[in-house]
C-alpha cells in the first residue's frame, strides 16, 4: 500500500514537471532554495540564531555545575534572542519600505510630469 502511494506521488510530480516544461515556466523553488536565498539576503539573522543556540547549549551544560555561569548563559541567550528578533523586524521593515518605495516613486514621477505640463 505504501509503494502504491509513492508511485502515485512520483507520477503526479512527473506530470507536473511535464506541464511546467510545456508552458515554459520554471518549477517553483524548493523550500531549501528559498531558505538559502533568504539567509543570503539577511546574513545577520542566521548568525543571531546560531548565537542563541550556542547560549542555550552552554546553559544546558552548566545546569548542575555552576549556577552563576548558568545564569550568565541564560542572560546571554535572552540578549541574543532580543537582537535576533530586532534584526528580523528591521529586515521585514526594510523589505516593506523597499516595496512601498518601488510602488510610490513611479506615481510621484507621473504626478510631477502632469504638474510640469
Could you provide a short overview of the structure?
85% of the residues lie in helices and 0% in strands. It is mostly helical.
Task: Break the fold down into its secondary structure elements and pairings.
Elements: H1 2-22, H2 31-41, H3 44-61, H4 67-116
Helix pairs in contact: 3-4
What does this molecule look like?
The protein is mainly α. 85% of the residues lie in helices and 0% in strands. It is built from four helices and no strands. α3 runs antiparallel to α4. The longest helix has 50 residues. The radius of gyration is 25 Å and the shape is flat.
Low-confidence stretches: none
Helix content: over 70%
Largest sheet: none
Overall 3D shape: flat
> Whole-Å distance between the termini?
73 Å
Q: Count of DSSP helices?
A: 4
Quote the beta fraction.
under 5%
Give the beta-strand count. 0
Task: Give the class from helix and strand content and strand pairing.
Answer: mainly alpha
Computed over alpha carbons, the radius of gyration is 25 Å
Core attributes:
mainly alpha, 117 residues
Amino acid at each position: 500500500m505504501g509503494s502504491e502511494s509513492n508511485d502515485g506521488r512520483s507520477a503526479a510530480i512527473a506530470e507536473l514537471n511535464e506541464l511546467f516544461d510545456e508552458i515554459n515556466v520554471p518549477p517553483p523553488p524548493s523550500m531549501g532554495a528559498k531558505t538559502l536565498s533568504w539567509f543570503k539576503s539577511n546574513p545577520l539573522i542566521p548568525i543571531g540564531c546560531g548565537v542563541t543556540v550556542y547560549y542555550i547549549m552552554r546553559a544546558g551544560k552548566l545546569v548542575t555545575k555552576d549556577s552563576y555561569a548558568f545564569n550568565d548563559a541564560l542572560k546571554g541567550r535572552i540578549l541574543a534572542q532580543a537582537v535576533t528578533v530586532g534584526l528580523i523586524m528591521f529586515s521585514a521593515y526594510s523589505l516593506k519600505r523597499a516595496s512601498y518605495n518601488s510602488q510610490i516613486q513611479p506615481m510621484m514621477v507621473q504626478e510631477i510630469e502632469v504638474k510640469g505640463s
